[in-house]
Amino acid sequence: MKSLLKDRRSIAWAKKLRQALSMPSGNFPHLKHSSPNLSYGRHKGPALSRARRAANLILLFPDNAGRWTIPLMIRAETEGIHAGEIALPGGRREPGETARETALREFWEETGHRVAEKQVLGELPPTHVWASNHQVRTFVALQHSIPVWSPDPKEVAGLLFLPLSHLMNPGNFGMHQVTRRRVQFSAPHLSVSGQRVWGATLRMLVELGEVLGSAE
């Protein structure tokens, strides 16, 4: 009976989350500022006409303790400007693909786990990653079982797992100094397993946190 009630609660929560993802982003409560202090709102602003199109996927799944969790990846050192950073699985769109197809394909290629299209609940507002000039569309999916992971070592140095309760706890956020081309600035981050999640990835996670707050 407890398992049945838990499944019903999960289904009801997934329905609320799907509804929240369809709301205009202006309806989301503010969770926490997530952009570096030199970004000037670029993550939220319109992408340049020459911006490359990309997509990624946030997968929610229950861990061994039953906590809803998000997989993050540590990019391999061969991954250019974002090498070694924490990111959501995703990548650039290929010709003839929809953004959703890109997100699902990239997630599978990078983590080794295939997410079905029917598991996608919706989409977050797009993010302009101005450091690499990409406009990224972020999709949110949910499954009720623990995935089997097999990350691609060419692209992924390792996986991290972020419980939603950790994301929603303000005590896990902080600030750090970043130096880019001799310019130093402050940037917010989320601490996950001793790693700092910041930049566009943090912004996308905070967007999710805002949606979750409206789905409660």
Beta-strand portion reads 25-35%
Structural class: alpha+beta
Q: How many H/I helical runs? A: 4
Largest sheet: 8 strands, mixed
Topology:
Layout: H1 2-21, E1 52-62, E2 68-75, E3 86-87, E4 90-92, H2 99-111, E5 120-123, E6 127-129, E7 134-142, E8 156-163, H3 164-167, E9 173-180, E10 183-192, E11 195-198, H4 199-215
Parallel strand pairs: 1-7
Antiparallel strand pairs: 1-2, 1-4, 2-3, 2-8, 5-7, 6-7, 9-10, 10-11
Helix pairs in contact: 1-4
What does this molecule look like?
This protein is an alpha+beta fold and 216 residues long. Helices cover 25% and strands 32% of the residues. It is built from four helices and eleven strands. Strands 1, 2, 3, 4, 5, 6, 7 and 8 form an eight-stranded mixed β-sheet that branches. A hairpin with a 5-residue loop joins strand 1 and strand 2.
Quick gist of this model?
This protein has 216 residues and is of the alpha+beta class.
Properties at a glance:
single chain; 216 residues; alpha+beta; 8-stranded mixed beta sheet; 3-stranded antiparallel beta sheet; 4 helices; disordered N terminus
